[in-house]
Amino acid sequence: MTLPPGDMAPRPLAPTVGTGLWRGLTMRCPACGDSPLFARYLKLHSHCARCGLRLDEFRADDAPPYFTILAVGHIVVPGMLLLEKLAHPPSWVHSALWIPLTLALTLLVLPRMKGAVIGVQWANRIRG
């Protein structure tokens, strides 16, 4: 069986924002989803080892820290307010609890947000 000529040949599916977002959140290549996105904590590989996508063309710049602050703030601030309302702990308890939690959440969320931004850029064909 042969394929029909011209425009009738099957085309690859267009990238979707949801696919790019999910693959970025899981810190995988947005195109294939198999190779790791990062060589180090926030340092991108220059290209995907599996599909060859040039990863160094994507520029996330200030968006990942902004989204990280937004996400972590929406977790930490309500927790602080709820703890204060229910238990009225001393200030040292707040400091001992919320400072390490904020730092840990920030370090956990930041690379995922950078991956998500890169995944959305890939899906929308935005290059740096």
Which helices and strands appear, and what pairs or packs with what?
Layout: H1 17-25, H2 63-87, H3 91-123
Describe this protein with a few key phrases.
3 helices; 52% helix; mainly alpha; 128 residues
Which oligomeric state applies?
single chain
User: Which structural class do you get from the secondary structure elements?
Assistant: mainly alpha
End-to-end CA span: 43 Å
Report the sheet with the most strands, covering strand number, pairing sense and barrel closure: none
Rg estimate, integer Å:
20 Å
As for the number of domains, it is 1
Let me know the number of strands. 0
| H-E string | HHH
Name the overall outline. Answer: elongated
Q: Unreliable runs, pLDDT <50, ≥5 residues?
A: none
The level of helicity is 40-55%
Q: How confident overall, as mean pLDDT?
A: 92
Number of helices: 3
| Share of residues in strands | under 5%
